[in-house]
Amino acid sequence: MALNISYPFQYKWYGFFVNVNSNYSHYKADFGGGDRVINQEVFSYIVYLQNTFNLGKGWTGELTGLYISPMLWQGLFKSVPMGFVDAGLQKTIFKGKGNMKFAMSDILKTMKWGGSGNFAGAVNEGHGNGEMQQFKFNISYRFGNSQVKAARQRKSAIDEEKKRAEGGGNQQGGIGQQ
Question: What distance in Å separates the CA atoms of residue 10 and residue 18, rounded to the nearest whole number?
């Protein structure tokens, strides 16, 4: 059973987007009784939040966070909570034709996985972390004419025939025109 809720919000210079995904799972299995029985249930959730800030004079900022509650993997392995906080700053440059971006991911070094499990007396434990923390710098520039007109929309023969069948094919005051 799962429930997912998303909500975007924008007010003047500040905006945010939040997503909450919750899940209830119940794992049951009997592999011969005794300590070979699985009967685990868990309520888990994931919260994602993205904040955006218009700081003026071509500057924008972003602060993003993710939290993953403890959950069961494969019905046996209970994970530890994990998450991250990312931040970025962007500046419009070259008279609006370019951008310069600075960003850092996993600022608090919290995106580490881990957990443990015990089945039939076999205890398993694992922990690790990837190379989640990164510093990024990017400069982009848009070449070409930014005033190019949008491509003309073309209607297919099917669209034209449908319009005629509905009485709207004659635009000069024929049948179906008032």
Answer: 12
Tell me the C-alpha distance between 142 and 119, whole Å: 57
d(CA 152, CA 35): 70
Could you give the angle at the alpha carbon of 170 between the alpha carbons of 166 and 176, nearest 5°?
Answer: 50
User: β-strands 14-30, 37-56: how paired?
Assistant: antiparallel
Q: Tell me the domain boundaries of the chain.
A: 2-165
CA separation for the pair 36, 28 (Å, rounded): 11
Kindly state the DSSP code that residue 50 receives in the 8-state scheme.
E
pLDDT in tens, 105-151: 999 989 988 998 888 888 889 888 877 789 999 999 998 776 666 55
Dihedral pair phi/psi, residue 174, rounded to 5°: -80, -150
Contacts of 119 (CB under 8 A, 6+ apart): 35, 36, 38, 76
- In whole angstroms, what is the distance from residue 34 CA to residue 119 CA? 11
Residue 154 tokens read as 């073309």
Could you report the per-residue pLDDT of 20-54, keeping only the tens digit for each? 999 998 888 888 877 788 888 889 999 999 999 99
